Amino acid sequence: MDQKIINLYDSYTHSQLSRKEFIKKLSILTGGTAMALTMLPLLENNYAAAASLVDDSQLETETITYKGVNGEMKGFMAKPKNGKNLGTVLVIHENRGLNPHTIDVTKQVAAEGFLALGLDALSVTGGTPADEDKAREEIGKLDPAANLQNFILGLDYLRKRKDGNGKVGCVGFCWGGRMANLLAVNDPNLQAAVAYYGSQAEVADVPKIKASLMLHYAGLDERINAGIPAYEAALKQSSIDYQLFIYEGVNHAFNNNTSPTRYNEAAAKLAWGRTIDLFKTKLK
What we know:
Elements: H1 3-13, H2 19-30, H3 33-43, E1 59-67, E2 72-80, E3 86-92, H4 100-111, E4 115-120, H5 132-141, H6 144-160, E5 164-173, H7 175-186, E6 192-196, E7 212-218, H8 222-225, H9 228-237, E8 242-247, H10 265-283
Parallel strand pairs: 3-4, 3-5, 5-6, 6-7, 7-8
Antiparallel strand pairs: 1-2, 2-4
Helix pairs in contact: 1-2, 2-3
């Protein structure tokens, strides 16, 4: 698919561009409205078409709640059956909320031997809606300070779990990747933070980081990658324990197997293996 079309879709999903305006711009690139509507299913997430990567029969799952700073927080919890003394991982969704894909990622983390929590940032507004555009709008309206504190409380919740070992990491994607960077800055007790194609923390805040960082970037993701040089320079200057990987020739959201145009199986598997290796080193 023409990279201009993928870039347009990325712009649409990360801005306040209306669906009407997006379709209009897509029609110009594809040569007409009919072709644009034909192209649309190849761009949008298709949860039904993406098979789960996990055998649910080996897991225990539950819905958990805890008190946030501005309302009750809810999340999807998964762990190996009869699992005890487990390293714990907070899984942070993209700007579409806690959708089926993020729930599947949470199960993937659990299948690797961890207690995993996929937290719903939109709990305070009634939970993630089925309409992804509506979810994006609601994510954009969240109070940043309160939202950050709600995720920090999620880390505290995991530390107190009796089936956990007190060690906590996080992994986030896109919007959640940004949150993973922010949690590394704002939680000095975090052991490991993994950010997939997420915007960087402020350079001035880098010295606060105590966690081990792993940063995954897509080679074609110019929007996010623009922040890499300054961030990496600050990480080096402050002697932060970090690993940074750029996967050439792949797009933003390359890990999302429900996004047929942007998903890249080879890059996703390589990045996932590196992520799990970090968690096994730091959280076991």
